[in-house]
Amino acid sequence: MVQRHYKQGDYLFICDQCGHWTYGSDGRMQWNNLFVCNSCYEERQPQDFVRGLPDDTRVPIARPRQTDSFLSAGDVTPEDL
Q: CA 19 to CA 16: how far, in whole Å?
């Protein structure tokens, strides 16, 4: 608990996180726009700044689809195999 006595050029505020009275010189603005005391202050999670990289899903060697060719009866004989 802060003793509420006069500090020249300073002011009292209520911490947005814990609700305790604190001097303005002992407070900080957090990344989510909360003005908090030094004991409640937390850095922003580094994972918030990670950006995903797009995957290259293209086929490296693309060829057009072959047309289907059907064999009729007698086109292939056992000697061809």
A: 6
Taking the CA atoms of 22, 28, 33 and 34 in sequence, report the sign of the dihedral they define. Answer: negative
Residue with tokens 């990344």: 31
Residue 8 in 3-state DSSP?
Answer: coil
In the chain, what are the domains? 1-39 (3.30.60)
Q: What is the pLDDT of residues 40-80, one digit of tens each?
A: 999 999 999 999 999 988 888 888 888 888 888 878 777 77
Residue listed under structure tokens 């603005």: 29
Could you tell me how many residues make up the chain? Answer: 81
Task: Give every CB contact of residue 30 below 8 A, 6+ residues apart in sequence.
Answer: 36, 41, 42
Give the residue from 20, 49, 47, 44 showing the smallest Cα distance to 32.
44
